[in-house]
Specification:
rod-shaped, about 0% strand
């Protein structure tokens, strides 16, 4: 009977250790997932910023082309 009680105590300690390890692993898993989510949002933000800058650059080029065409038209009319 005493050996059964010792076995039960050891088994309970083993279960407690296993539960503690699983909880620790879950905590680290949550931290890693959170860091990956933050990294993903940062990369998404950089992508959006890059697309906005690209669009802004194309708009500036269009405005520059219009300005050049206007200058050319003025030169033609002044002749």
């Amino acid at each position: 009977m005493k050996t059964d009680a010792n076995f039960d105590i050891e088994q309970q300690k083993s279960f407690d250790d296993t539960i503690a390890e699983v909880q620790s692993s879950q905590r680290w898993f949550k931290i890693v997932v959170l860091l990956l989510l933050v990294l993903h949002l940062f990369v998404l933000f950089l992508g959006v910023e890059f697309l906005m800058l690209k669009k802004m650059n194309s708009l500036v080029n269009v405005m520059d082309d219009k300005r050049r065409l206007t200058v050319l038209d003025e030169d033609e009319f002044s002749k």
